[in-house]
Amino acid sequence: MNLEQYIRDIPDFPKPGVVFKDITPLLNDCDAYNYTVGQLLKLIGEQKIDKVIGVESRGFFFGMLLAQKLKAGFIPVRKPNKLPHKTLAQSYDLEYGSDAVEIHADAIHKGDKILIHDDVLATGGTAGAVCQLVKELGGEIVQCNFLMELTLLNGREKLDGHPVASLLKY
Question: Can 95 be counted among the known catalytic residues?
Fold first, then answer.
């Protein structure tokens, strides 16, 4: 199956000059998203995963499905002030400012094997911040797993050498 046919380019979103990779056509097709889950699982292989992190918000879609298939827990990582319990935050730089992500402070136990999943690896700022949170809580990052990678933006460089896998490269 050619997954690229389910990724729609939206020019000038969210700002002029950006071409947004829209995954909603993929989510709208049962065969395509089931195939995608299977392919994402192949990227992980036989590695033991205790918990899957899904990064807000599009990382939640496949992150939950991966956690279910892996018989692992699921951890949402969200923008500030969205999680109801005690959190740990990590800020990161954007090309036009800064942002932050938060995780529940009790979500990871020392030594937990963690899969980080998001829909796209672009500049690596968000994923790098999530890696910092996992390390701070004592988790072991098994893989940073993405549906798509925008290779020209060199996001891998911000992931401290952690294994990175993606289904599609642009």
Answer: yes
